[in-house]
Amino acid sequence: MFENIFIEEDIRDTAKVSEIVNRFKSSTVKYLKSYDDVWGRTKKPYLSKRTNLNLFLAKKKGHLVKEAPNAYGLAGEKHFYFIHAYNCIYECEYCYLQGYFNTPDIVLFLNHDEIAQEMQQVVDAHPNETIWFHAGEFSDSLALSHITGELEAYWEFFKKNPQAKLELRTKSVNIKRLEKLEPLENVYASFSLSPERAVKERDLKTPPLKARIKAIEVARTQGHNIGIHFDPVIYHNDVFEEYAQLFKELAQSASLESISYFSLGVVRFTPQVFHEAQKNYPKSPMFGAQFIKSSEDIVRYPRSMRAWILNKLKESLIEHGATPETVYLCMED
Amino acid sequence: MDLLIFAHRGEAQQFIKRLSLKASEDTQGLYVGENTLLLITGEGIYEVFAKLGLVLGQYPISRAFNIGIAGSLSEKIELGKVYEVKTAYNFTQKVQFQSFTLSESAHAKDTITSSERVLTNESASELSNFAPIVDREVWAVAKTCAAAGVELRSYKLISDVAGEQTDCFDLKQKALEFSTTLLEFWLGLEHNETPFDDSISYPIQMSFTQKAKYQKLVDSLSLNTNFDHKTFATDFLNSLGDKYSSKQKANLLLERMELGLNPVKLATKESFEKLSMPAKEIGATLLFDKNFEKKKFTLQMEINDQKNIENLSKLSEALNFSDFEKIWNGSIDV
Predict the structure, then answer these.
(1) What's B26's domain CATH number?
(2) Contact residues, chain A, for B295 at CB < 8 Å
């Protein structure tokens, strides 16, 4: 899976590093002072992740927790994200990571205790507020959780801080570690879903839709709070029929009333990511629609088109049983 | 015309012989054939910059091939095997940010071009962090070809393991053997495909701008559906009859095609036009941004009479901003 594993010298003798290295016996192991001596130093093409992906094991320095942009999640509450990893094992054609970093190589930060300490400082600074923490801003929250073992570290923090909430965002079905943990009222496992055809066409290397719906049901039955993201929605002729089918399948698996929240968002890019995606996937059907660059420097569908799509999907989702108050539109005014 | 680029004559010798190339009288290191040129640059990136740019400027080169030997930086790279270069990186005192991807093949390998010979294990180890193969030229060849807009492929024969065990004298002795292996490999490649012809015919007389828009729409619509632009355009233009000029027909065709990319574009435009009617009736215009993206419009009106001012005052009762907001917020029947 990984061509080389680069390990920071400071953590080379830790048990977690040995455990991870033992899982990837065919990878060449190298040591360096700091992961960014190599990672991101040169422009490594995004699609090289298909053939020569490297893994870096490191300690995150600098800011470990950052405030999230407006309209990141439920309105009216403060949102932060913590950085436990850079880059992802999946390859989604619209993914913003392809234009964000200069390399697709994965970094796993192993100093979860320090990240939790910084999260504590954020909570202490906002004593009377609900603070949301999101994992997965730069990586999938659960895809590699069986090898990083980080969930346990964060579980302790959220048990101790019930006013803080955690969202784990994923496209994976890797809920092995989650299943072993006691459900907490303030922790939400959120799954990103797209219609089956879209998953096959654009969410390359991700688990099939049916497996994701099954994972949702297992986690939900066990008592975990579930959030679902229908984001990004990509327009094509059959988009409403395909989403109606997806909502139907989901409703057959679990009552949509039992889902804590849904988000809906249409595809959007920074100009740089749009350019990278066009370069990497020039024949992708996702470019078969009108995109404009808006005044906020976002490349997306024109306003009336994205509002029309989101309204119709929201209506359909509610028709299939979702409670209106639990549906929010992502990154829209 | 193809251009083959080598660092040393030793690596190129079998190519010169097999392709019956003659030394150029004007340019040192250049060999000329009927459809092929061969350039010997000398070793290192500065030699490449000095010689290659000149040749690319003088001759109509459509494709270039950089061929030669390289060193291994990884146990996974086999000695004696020829690898295609995937992405070319550069190390000149430190790794340079700019890289060039030459091939998307799963079998191709990344290669780092070192500005100096790699004669210590320490420097080989440092370079191995970025690529499993090291050479002295490909990054500079790629940079020069990219600037000239010339497509480049590169093939490297792994001659030795880079580091303390590198023996430059021994490599020179084996030049004939290397050149023979490289020629055999090159002759086995299928690199004579003709470029894809993507020019399209236009269904009606169009201006330059209309043609560009038509081409772009055909490209985008073809991504999402099995879109046959010829049949679509013929059927649509026939349905228009004779009441429009060619220019109007072309515009209507483009507008109709745009619906495939944004089904609410026309309805949005028509809804705003309808809401703008009271303004139009008194000689005023509501101006929106091109894509109706911003939630605002400008009211423009020439005032040359008291009557205009009175009409303008009545307009405030006829226009309701919330009606416009509904359109911006997606309340559109399609």
Answers:
(1) 3.40.50.1580
(2) 303
Residues from chain B that touch A50, judged by Cβ atoms under 8 A, are 106
Q: Say how many domains are in chain B.
A: 3
B328, A48: Cβ pair inside 8 Å?
Answer: no
Q: Is residue B194 part of a domain?
A: no
Confirm whether B241 is domain-assigned: yes
Domain hosting residue B253, numbered range: 201-261
- Neighbour tally for B279: CB within 10 Å: 20
- Each residue of B106-123: pLDDT tens digit? 889 999 999 999 989 999
The shortest CB-CB distance from A43 to any of B97, B258, B294 is to: B97
| Contact present, A188 and A164 (Cβ < 8 Å) | no
Residue range B220-227: average pLDDT?
Answer: 83
Q: A322 with A256: CB under 8 angstroms?
A: yes
Residue A173 has pLDDT above 70, yes or no: yes
Check A6 against B129: CB less than 8 A apart: yes
What are the Cα distances from residue A139, in Å, to A87, B54, B197, B327?
Answer: 5, 46, 40, 37
Mean pLDDT, chain A, whole residue set: 93
User: Best interface-test mutation with A: which of B90, B196, B224, B292 has the largest number of A CBs within 10 A?
Assistant: B224
Q: What is the pLDDT of residue B195?
A: 40
Return the DSSP state at B201.
Answer: -
Subunit contact B129:A305, Cβ cutoff 8 A: no
Whether residue B168 sits in one domain with residue B24:
yes
Neighbour tally for A250: CB within 10 Å: 26
- Give the pLDDT confidence score for residue B193 in this predicted structure: 45
Complex ipTM value:
0.75
User: What are the pLDDT digits (tens) for A76-128?
Assistant: 788 999 999 999 999 999 999 998 999 999 999 999 999 999 999 999 999 88
B46 lies in some domain: yes
Residue B2, classed as helix, strand or coil, is: strand
pLDDT at A74: 60
B177 in the same domain as B69: yes
In the stretch 260-319 of chain B, residues with CB closer than 8 A to chain A read: 260-265, 268, 291-295
B167 with B206, same domain?
A: no
CATH architecture, domain defined by A4-329: Alpha-Beta Horseshoe (3.80)
Instruction: Provide the pLDDT confidence category of residue B197 given band limits of 50, 70 and 90.
Output: very low
Query: Nearest-CA neighbor of A79 among A38, A133, A119?
Result: A133
Q: Which chain B residues contact residue A28 at CB under 8 A?
A: 74-76
Cis ω for the linkage preceding B263 (within 30 of 0) = no
Task: Tell me whether residue B195 is in a domain.
Answer: no
- B99 to A6: CB separation less than 8 angstroms, yes or no: no
Best A49, A308, A313, A315 member to test B by mutation, with max B CBs in 10 Å, is A308
* Pair B98, B168 in one domain: yes
A-contacting residues in B 239-268 (Cβ below 8 Å): 258, 260-265, 268
List alpha helices for A167-207, DSSP H.
176-179, 196-202
Instruction: Identify whether residues B7 and B81 lie together within a single domain.
Output: yes
Do residues B303 and B253 both lie within one domain? no
